[in-house]
């Protein structure tokens, strides 16, 4: 049985602080009854965590100076900005701090355990959309994050690919939003246009029965005038976008971020690792109010980047589902094939003929190789399509949508598709070219075996450099990747 290591770090005082966000819309008369859903919540909380009963009067004690975050104490705007921008400061104690919190996490408040989405006390409109989407039970990360996130708490979450992290921030944001005309309430930033498009689609899917909430996506490659007109004529309540385009719109005063209450980074490590993108994120962050919820998510979150994430937050709850060494996907069968470079095309042809699959993604290392390999597959009568950064934005999105809808069964792609993209029918990933790093391998193979389903990942090893990366993957993620046998049982990777 696959066992996940999970801990939450939440000071007692943070819970009532978060509930205060929910109580803002309540009657100011202290003798007035609480809304029904909050009465139910406090009953559940008290029974789940008896030690928290004395906290339910919503008058949290002030934290001690040792508990407050460096950003939480700062009142002066200029000082706050300087603190935020100081990323060069050494964080030598960070790895030890994380380990200490793991040991001490049991002493803090732990998320309410729920067996179904209904137990999260979500809006009826959200529950209806969840049913329409075919979800029956929350995944582990949803189980741990959603009860806390809907209270407005800051969250850092690392969980393996395919475990439904996107639904955590989509549902928790939609749960909290009270739409006001002309005001942006939530801002979601991600590092690629395709991921932004997908996140926007998820917001639209779960807000089907919340027609007053408007969602829009903004990214480069589209005429900026189109986006400016949209913001002027039909301002959204939820903005999803890439940092470059969002910053350009904000600088030109077309996008007003002064009412943002929810600031979310998806695949946060990718954005904060890149200095240029980090600067954009920082500048956008400073245009939003100090009092807001901040949530960050990623499949890979190194101990070095975690302190950087926390600089954007106040007393964040930290959830790490699986430690870094166990991030390979449950249910995913992984194999490698040793061969020469010139043998790759023939071997790929044989695999596509022999394997059973719904859809397959083939990863290559460059735009040129993607185009050439796709051309070869089409000439061999395989239903193939390719996506890479050399295409126009419109063409990329059209091809992505077509593949997601099942019009083609084979996708040849660069690492542009390697993070966050969720295509339910994909059950095989082939690394035609070995990725350069173990993290990239994890994100690539994560396109198969989504949400705990079965999948197969096959990697071509054609050089000593490839062998080195394969060894790094096995050592880091503590997984034994065996050579592909002559016969492989389809039931081990095909959904039943």
From TrEMBL:
Record-level Gene Ontology MF annotations: ATP binding; hydrolase activity; nucleic acid binding; RNA helicase activity
Keyword terms, alphabetized: ATP-binding, Chloroplast, Helicase, Hydrolase, Nucleotide-binding, Nucleus, Plastid
Organism per entry: Adiantum capillus-veneris (Maidenhair fern)
Protein name: RNA helicase
Residue span(s) of domain Helicase C-terminal: 347-492
Domain spans labelled Helicase ATP-binding: 146-319
Residues annotated as domain DEAD-box RNA helicase Q: 115-143
UniProt entry tagged with the keyword Flavoprotein: no
A GO cellular component annotation in the UniProt record: nucleus
Listed PROSITE patterns: HELICASE_ATP_BIND_1, HELICASE_CTER, Q_MOTIF
Enzyme Commission number: 3.6.4.13
Renumbered ranges of motif Q motif: 115-143
Subcellular localization(s) per the UniProt record: Nucleus
UniProt record similarity statement: Belongs to the DEAD box helicase family. DECD subfamily.
Pfam families: DEAD, Helicase_C
């Amino acid at each position: 049985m696959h066992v996940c290591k999970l801990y939450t770090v939440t000071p007692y005082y943070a819970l009532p602080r978060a509930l205060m966000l929910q109580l803002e819309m309540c009657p100011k008369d202290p003798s007035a009854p609480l809304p029904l859903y909050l009465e139910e919540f406090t009953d559940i909380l008290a029974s789940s965590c008896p030690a928290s009963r004395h906290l339910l009067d919503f008058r949290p004690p002030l934290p001690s100076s040792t508990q407050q975050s460096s950003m939480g104490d700062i009142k002066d705007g200029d000082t706050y900005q300087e603190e935020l921008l100081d990323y060069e400061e050494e964080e030598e104690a960070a790895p030890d701090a994380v380990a200490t919190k793991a040991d001490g996490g049991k002493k803090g408040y732990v998320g309410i355990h729920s067996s179904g989405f209904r137990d999260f006390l979500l809006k009826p409109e959200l529950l209806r959309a969840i049913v329409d989407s075919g979800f029956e039970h929350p995944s582990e990360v949803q189980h741990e994050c959603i009860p806390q996130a809907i209270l407005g708490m800051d969250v850092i979450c690392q969980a393996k690919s395919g475990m439904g992290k996107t639904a955590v921030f989509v549902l928790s944001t939609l749960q909290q939003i009270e739409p006001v005309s002309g005001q942006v309430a939530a801002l979601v930033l991600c590092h690629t246009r395709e991921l932004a498009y997908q996140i926007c689609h998820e917001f639209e899917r779960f807000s089907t029965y919340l027609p007053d909430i408007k969602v829009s996506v903004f990214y480069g490659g589209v005429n900026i005038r189109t986006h400016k007109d949209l913001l002027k004529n039909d301002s959204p309540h939820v903005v999803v976008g890439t940092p470059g385009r969002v910053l350009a719109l904000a600088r030109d005063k077309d996008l007003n971020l002064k009412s943002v209450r929810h600031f979310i980074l998806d695949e946060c490590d990718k954005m904060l690792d890149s200095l240029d993108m980090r600067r954009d994120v920082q500048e956008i962050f400073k245009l939003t109010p100090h009092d807001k919820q901040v949530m960050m998510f990623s499949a890979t979150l190194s101990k070095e980047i975690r302190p950087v994430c926390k600089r954007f937050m106040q007393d964040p709850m930290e959830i790490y589902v699986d430690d870094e060494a166990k991030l390979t996907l449950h249910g995913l069968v992984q194999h490698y094939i040793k061969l020469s470079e010139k043998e790759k095309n023939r071997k790929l042809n044989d695999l596509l003929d022999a394997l059973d699959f719904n859809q397959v993604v083939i990863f290559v290392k460059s735009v040129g190789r993607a185009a050439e390999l796709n051309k070869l597959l089409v000439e061999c009568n395989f239903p193939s399509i390719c996506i890479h950064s050399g295409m126009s934005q419109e063409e990329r999105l059209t091809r992505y949508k077509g593949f997601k809808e099942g019009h083609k069964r084979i996708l040849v792609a660069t690492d542009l598709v390697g993070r966050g993209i969720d295509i339910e029918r994909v059950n095989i990933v082939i690394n035609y070219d070995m990725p350069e790093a173990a993290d990239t391998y994890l994100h690539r193979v994560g396109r198969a075996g989504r949400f705990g389903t079965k999948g197969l990942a096959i990697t071509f090893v054609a050089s000593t450099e490839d062998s080195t990366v394969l060894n790094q993957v096995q050592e880091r993620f503590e997984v034994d990747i065996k050579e592909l046998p002559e016969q492989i049982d389809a039931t081990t990777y095909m959904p039943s």
